[in-house]
Amino acid sequence: MTPPPSPAVEGGAAAAAAGHGGRERHVLLFPLPYQGHINPMLRLAGVLRARGFAVTVFHTHFNAPDAARHPEHRFVAVPDGMSGARPPPVSVGDVVKHIRALNAACEAAFRDRLAAVLAEYSRDAVACLVADAHLLRMVEVARRLAVPTLVLRTGSAACFASFLAYPLLCDKGYLPVQESSQLDMPVSELPPYRVRDLMHIGRDGHELMCELLARAVAAVKLSSGLILNTFDALEAPELAKLRRDLAVPVFDIGPLHRFSPAADGSLLHQDRSCLAWLDAQAAESVLYVSFGSLASMGARELVETAWGIAGSGVPFLWVVRPGLVRSRRAAPDEPTRLLLPEGFEAATRRRGVVVAWAPQEEVLRHRAVGGFWTHSGWNSTTESLAEGVPMLCRPSFGDQMGNARYVEHVWKAGFEVGGELERGAVEAAIRRLMAESDGGEMRARARDLKKAAAECTGKAGSSETAIVKMVTHMLSL
């Protein structure tokens, strides 16, 4: 394996490149192998590369990134012993179990790979390892080999604050949820959360969820710093609380796609033909619909969503990826139209486009897009806010419920579509978002947040300043 060529050094990056007797310093990265975790880690890689570091990315065989797309970085595979041994995770319970199994399966192999890299680079040329918060075993391995670590948490500051508070919330009886009547109970310790907005998977999975979150907190506390893909103007109170509650520095360096927009970590092929269609549409007229890379829905929900979109009369771009419909194992190359109800294509001809995957950042940036119906994953949420696009939120699991709650009740840049999907309610929600009345107010608020994101990521902005502090911190470890 040959390290990548030395990067060009620009501005303040000179300190990083010459941080070790004039020799290049290395940062090692290890993302959790899910789309929503790989993307921000690769964007972080771009940020570090631009500041003079050489970057080595460790990765599992499961959901391995395409190294050919990133010739500027070095990639080191860590055998996970799991590829093909089990079906890919579908439910949130599957994902939690899979994360735990990956930690155990990769520990020994990562130790060997990390030791080999340290021997090749020389230990003192390596600044640190940045690991995903859910890879506690990798943090522990690095510490045993005397490699300083930082942790990247790919969710919001508010979400990580809920991780820290989880034992208290359990002691106070919020969790595990015993009855459905508890779900709308406000969590006074974490406003504006309700119980339903916390990460939970029912009584049967409660202990597993407690373990997952406790391990993420442990990873941060064992590390030399927490990196968050958020920005001060979005979560100032939540960031201040984390800095009070944690003994390690917190670096809010987001939204990362503003600093490293070209980091293509997509595990699915992007259909770029939709951009030409958007070019022909009126400004802010199109509803973009995408439920992310992991969230799924039932067959009936898909039908009601389809007819609600059709009945709204609004132009749309809809991502219907293979695997979106639970209980239906679509082949990767199966035409998306085969997943949609009969008659939908004829009813929406020339008014909409359906693709299997889209270049989301470019779509949200496009002048024709006036609203985003999203699963409320954190990457999608920050990308939408950074481009000033208001949201319909349909959260599914994990941190998505909390993100949707903040979109509606704190940032006021969208609203949640809750309950059982029914085409009439879908029509009404779409029209409300895209209308000039309610939708106009949400759009104005989203534009304010777009401006704030631009200021935070601009020269001397809070996120740019945090990156400088993070780099300085890495070089001091």
Automatic annotation (TrEMBL):
Q: Which InterPro entries match?
A: UDP_glucos_trans
Top-rank taxon: Eukaryota
Q: Does the entry feature the keyword Protein transport, yes or no?
A: no
- Tell me the PANTHER family matching this sequence: DIMBOA UDP-GLUCOSYLTRANSFERASE BX8, GLUCOSYL/GLUCURONOSYL TRANSFERASES
Q: Is this entry keyworded Membrane?
A: no
Gene3D superfamilies xrefs = Glycogen Phosphorylase B (3.40.50.2000)
From the Swiss-Prot or TrEMBL record, give the protein name. Glycosyltransferase
Which keywords are on file for this protein?
Transferase
Q: Which GO terms describe its molecular function?
A: quercetin 3-O-glucosyltransferase activity; quercetin 7-O-glucosyltransferase activity
The family annotation for this protein states: Belongs to the UDP-glycosyltransferase family.
| A Pfam family recorded for this sequence | UDPGT
